Every structure is written in C-alpha cells, then in structure tokens.
Amino acid sequence: MDLASPQELRPEAAPVQRGAEETEPVERGILVIDDSEVTRQEILAIIQEAQLFDHCYEAAGGAEGIKSLQHNRVDLIICDVNMPGIDGLKFLDLTRKKFKDIPIIMLTSARDMETKIRCFELGASDYVEKGSWKERGPELRARVKTHLELKKSRDRLRELASIDELTQVYNRRHFMEELSREFSRAVRYQKPISFILMDIDHFKKINDTHGHQVGDMVLSHLAALIKQALRGSDVVARYGGEEFAVILPETELEGAVAAAEKMRRTVEREGFPSQDGPLDVRVSFGVANWPRHKVAHVDQLIRLADDALYCAKDAGRNRVVVAQE
Ligand SMILES: [Mg+2]
Q1: 132 CA → ligand 1 middle, Å
Q2: Whole-number Å distance between alpha carbons of 105 and 144
Q3: Mean pLDDT in the chain?
C-alpha cells in the first residue's frame, strides 16, 4: 500500500499541552475585574510586584470578565463585588460551574459580613476588604500566592490521577472521558474523528523470555515512540496491559491509517533497548473512523477498532487493519 505521510493527510493542529507534557512550564494568567480603572491599576501593580504571573488581564465588569475567561488561560481571578451590570455575586453565580478550578478572590467592603458569606456560598475562595491598597497590598499578595499554590497542587493531583505511571501516557479512565468528549465534539461540529487500537504482538513471549522488567521497558519505550510519531493534539493512552489507544481528532480515515502505518514502521525499525540487547517488537493495529463508520455511539467505534485489531492478529500480526463498514 502506497501511503502519503500523515502530515500530508492531516493538517497540523494547534499544539495542545496534553498528558505528561503538562509538567512542562505553563504560562500563568490572572484576571482582575473591577469597574474602577484606578483600582484595577493599583491591584495590577501590587500583583506584578510578586511576579507570579506571565499575563495580567483586566475587565471593567462581569460580562467583560466572562469574555476574558473564554479567551485566556486564567489561573486566578480577583473580582469586585459592587459593579454595574453583572456584579461580583452574579459573576460568581454565572462562572462557578464552568470555571470551578479557578480560585476567585472577591473585593468586598469592610463592614458587609452578609455579602462576604454570600460570596463563599457562591463559590468564592477568599475575599479581601477594599481600602488603602498601600496597607492592603501585602495581604492581597499573600492571599493570591496561597491560592495560586493551592491551585497548582490541585492541577498536579488531577494530572497524576489521569496518567499511567509506567508509560506516562493517559490511563484508560481518563482516556474514556476524553474519547466521549472528542466524539461528541466531532459529531456536533461535523468533523471527522479517528480511533486506533493497538496491541503488542506476542507480548507474553517477551515477558516469559526476558522477564517482566524488560516487558515494562518495552511498554514505556513503545509509549514514547507512539507519542513521537503523532501530533500534539492526538491523545494517547495505555488501554490495557499491552494495549494502547489513540484518538486522532479532525482526522479522516486515510490520515489515521497513515498514522498507524507510521507507528508500525517506526516500531518495526526500532531495536528496543534491553539488558539482553536490542529487541524486535511488533505491533498490530485496528482503525475506525466517524463518519466513515456510521456509528451512533463511541462504544461502537471502540468495538469496530477492536474487531479490526482482532482481524490484524488473525491475518498474521504486524499490520494495520481498517474496520469493516
Ligand atoms: Mg466597584
């Protein structure tokens, strides 16, 4: 089969930070929402002194704040309570569900205990009383720092919970969430999506001959090779013991077949490092695609790829098989 390279068949998507790559440094952003321009500038000056953020965004009200959240990567919000239009409380009410991971510090008046409590009820992380910023500055900085650190820990925990420790690609649980999300998105926007299931040929023999330690090394080395062969926007996971799965968003069937062939050839050429010298490893692939395969549910897409993978094994292994329509 003469195949074009995956790059020709699949336009390079915008780079997305995924999985283990998220441990790389990320650019942090803060959003300051206040109807007073003077207050915004004072707060931004206080925040910039702490050098915790790479980007500072500002908004003059709740509506503008929501727009900024939709377009920017924000790690922390400082929001005034009293604003015309969408005020601080309404802003909390509108954003807490969708942006619940972003801590929000409210700017309140000193005496209004009722409002402070209401802020917490609506999901605020903290408040700072408005007043002379010369006095309040260090307190605001300290609170911002604390909440940013807490967010970083939460982000890290979530990341660890979604990664397969041995291979450093996504685990199956996280992958299934991603697949459901990507499949719904594909159907909603009428964009193609491909799914590849792959399985190491005769993996049991590798374990039996060289031991489980070598088996583990083969798995982690294979995961690294797979990631290298794919785009940043493709999602790779360890699907089972020696089984891996890939989501290829916005990819036609031909592009997915080319990507699978590229992975297959890469693995075939590679001598897998082991204490017993370089090992030959082979992998079989099953490929399915929506809308080429007329499936209504993501489970059917998986089943089709699984059937194709079975056919690849049955036909002699070390090959790519497309699911039957
Ligand atoms: Mg105000």
Answers
A1: 14
A2: 8
A3: 92
Q: 82 CA to middle of ligand 1, Å?
A: 4
Question: Start-end ranges of CATH 3.40.50.2300 in the chain?
Answer: 19-162
Q: What is the mean pLDDT of residues 100-118?
A: 93
Q: Give Cα 147 distance to the centre of its chain.
A: 22
Report the distance separating Cα 318 and Cα 321, nearest Å: 10
Tell me, in angstroms, the distance from the centre of ligand 1 to residue 31's CA. Answer: 15
Specify whether the CB–CB gap between 272 and 218 falls below 8 A.
yes
Residue 250's pLDDT band, with cuts at 50, 70 and 90, is very high
Cα of 112 to ligand 1 centre, how many Å? 14
Taking 70 as the threshold, does the pLDDT of residue 142 lie above it? yes
Strand segments (E) across 169-267: 193-200, 235-238, 243-249
CATH match of 170-322 with 3.30.160.100: no
46 CA distance to ligand 1 middle (Å): 18
Residues 66/72/76/81 CA torsion (nearest 10 deg): -20
User: Does CATH number 3.40.50.2300 belong to domain 19-162?
Assistant: yes
Q: What distance in angstroms lies between residue 74's CA and the mean position of ligand 1's atoms?
A: 21
Instruction: Report the separation in Å between the CA atom of 164 and the middle of ligand 1, taken as the mean of its atom positions.
Output: 47
Report CA(174)–ligand 1 centroid distance (Å).
41
Cα of 148 to ligand 1 centre, how many Å? 24
pLDDT at 268: 96
Average of pLDDT values for 100-129?
A: 94
Q: Which residue do the tokens 């377009």 mark?
A: 71
| Model confidence at 152: pLDDT above 70 | yes
The rounded Å distance from CA 90 to ligand 1 centre is 13
pLDDT computed for residue 13 by the predictor:
46
Check whether 127 has a pLDDT greater than 60: yes
Rounded mean pLDDT of 11-29? Answer: 56
